[in-house]
Amino acid sequence: PFNEDVVPQAAEDPLFGLMAAYKADSFDRKVDLGIGAYRDNNAKPWVLPVVKKADNILRDDPDLNHEYLPIAGLPEFTKASQKLILGADSPAIAENRVISLQTISGTGAVHLGGLFLSKFYSKTNPNATIYFSNPTWANHNQIFTNVHLPIDTYPYFDAKTRGLNFDGMISALEGAPEKSIVLLHACAHNPTGVDPTQDQWKKIAEVMRKKSQFPFFDCAYQGFASGDLNKDAWAVRYFVEQGFELLIAQSYAKNFGLYGERAGCFHYVGPARNGSETAKRVASQLAILQRSEISNPPAYGARIASLCLNDVSLFAEWEANLRTMSGRIIDMRKALRGKLEELKTPGTWNHITEQIGMFSFTGLSEAQVAKLRSDAHIYMTKNGRVSMAGLNTNNVNYVAEAINKVVK
Ligand code: PMP
How far, CA to CA in Å, does 87 sit from each of 3, 78, 396? Predict the structure, then answer.
């Protein structure tokens, strides 16, 4: 039944192809700017010291076993996750209108939300389309298509300013049908590194309220972006404050460096009126969806995160670790911009320091990206996205000089 017409050969994931090519390159000064994971100043993976500590506590715990977690996950983990994203004093939590399920990292949370919307939101809004930014994390496309939600995009990146195309975004939302679903990156937009300002978020909320549109926040970089957990959660909290009913996908891959442990959380926030009653019904259906998808979420990563989230001193240490990661990335942004300006590389480079988080949309063309790879062994995605975590004090000047050469 699986002939070529039925199961055609799929195109290779461009990121995996890039990784394989980098690995095979034997040049000693090669640079990986494709990687979506934090690297330390020696280009090595970094286990957060607080994670190592929590790991040791868990390993020494004689009572630890490998029993199933509840369907909704580790309760102390999901509870702490609510507080982390919504704020400990969030009225939505106090009013019991937040429902949270532990998921297979952020991807699983986006998927669970997509499945829930496809099954229930579509009942009263049969052709409701989910809009996401152009561009967005490539997986959004696949995840929402898999659950049969119609998808569309709103303009986001302005190639000229390498900043936000705010007018384009607003007019697209105004032009989208009422009750459309809108996917928003809570902070550190992937792949552009461009976030709305607080005033711009307010305007986005105003338009979405006017059009009764439904927000779905994807939050993969809280604390990793600015180094401040509250600052990075501002947009989500503002929408909740404004009384929106909404969904949140929360990932602990980047901010805890728990990539492979798949620790994440999905939240439904009910409306300000009768929210707890709705939340109760929603919880019952989410449990059924979760059961059929994964039965029970994986325990170890959530246990590590939970220890850090629930212990005052580990939490403070985590915040310091977050500042180490975000601080190093901010320093690399400054160093790259500084060197490009010093070399008088044609064009403007202020966007490098204005963008935030793991990624930067450099504005380099596909041809320039190809030349960087063939001439200088520097690897990045074709769209000119650079992972700032791949830069360090040993290679940033080399990268700037290579960029300077291909741009001149
Ligand atoms: N959403 C966005 C925008 C992301 O950048 C990522 C990480 N690449 C994720 C979700 C989820 O990643 P993970 O499943 O590893 O948590």
Answer: 52, 13, 37
Residue 159 burial (CB count, 10 A): 9
Closest residue by Cα to residue 356 from 248, 224, 200, 228 = 224
Instruction: Compute the distance from residue 138 Cα to the ligand 1 centre, in Å.
Output: 10
Q: pLDDT band for position 16 (50/70/90)?
A: confident
Contact 176, 213 (CB under 8 A): yes
Sign of CA dihedral 321, 337, 222, 198: positive
Indicate the residue type of 408: K
- From 59, 58, 101, select the one nearest 267 (Cα to Cα): 101
Mapping DSSP to helix (H, G, I), strand (E, B) and coil, where does residue 360 land?
Answer: strand
At 39-50, the pLDDT tens digits run 999 999 999 999
The span from the CA of 129 to the CA of 147, in Å, is 12
Question: What whole-number distance in Å separates Cα of residue 97 and Cα of residue 271?
Answer: 7
Average pLDDT over residues 335-351: 96
Q: Which of 270, 281, 280 minimizes the C-alpha distance to 246?
A: 270
What tens digit of pLDDT does each residue of 89-114 get? Answer: 999 999 999 999 999 999 999 999 99
* CA 220 to centroid of ligand 1, rounded, Å: 5
Where do we find the tokens 């909320």? 205
Virtual torsion, Cα 382, 344, 36, 227, nearest 10 deg: -150
pTM more than 0.95: yes
Helix (H), strand (E) at residue 216: strand 214-219
Termini Cα distance of the chain: 54
pLDDT at 13 over 90: no
Q: Is the pLDDT of residue 186 over 90?
A: yes
Q: What are phi and psi of 185, to 5 degrees?
A: -85, 120
- In three-state secondary structure terms, 183 is strand
Within 233-311, where are the H helices?
A: 234-241, 275-293, 300-310
List ligand 1's pocket residues with C-beta within 6 A. 36, 105-107, 110, 137, 185, 190, 218, 220, 251, 253, 259, 264
Probe residue for ligand 1, chosen from 190, 359, 388 as the CB with the greatest number of ligand atoms within 8 Å? 190
